[in-house]
Sequence to fold (124 residues):
Amino acid sequence: MTSVSAVLFAKDLQRVSDFYVEALGLQRSAADDHHVALDCRGFSLIVHQIPQALIHESEPLFPRRDEAALRLMFPVNDITTARQRAATYGGHIDATPPAWAAANANAFLGHDPEGNVFKIVHAS
Fold:
C-alpha cells in the first residue's frame, strides 16, 4: 500500500531537505542525487531537485509564498524549538498565530528557505 505523499520542487535540494529534517523533525527515508524522501508520521514529502538547466542564478531569492494553492501542516513536539531551528536553517516561523486562527489554536505559519509556506501545530 502506498502512503500519502507530496512533491516539493527545490532549487537547493540539500538546503530544503535539511530544513525539514532539522527544523520540523521529519525523517529521511531515502535519498539520491535528485530526490530526498522525508517521512512525517506516515506522510511522505519528496523534495525534488529542480533541474539545473531550469535554474537562473540571476533570479532573486524566493519571497514568502503566502498565496500558494497548497499549504502543508506539520505537527512538532516543541514550537519554540522549531521556531529557533527554522531560523538557523534559513526559514522562519511566525511568533503569533495567523489572524484567522482561534486564539488558543497554538498554530503558526512559517516558510522554508525557498519561501514555501507551511503551518505547524503542537503534536498531541
About this structure: The radius of gyration is 14 Å. The longest strand covers residues 43-49. The domain at 5-51+62-122 is CATH 3.10.180.10 (2,3-Dihydroxybiphenyl 1,2-Dioxygenase; domain 1).
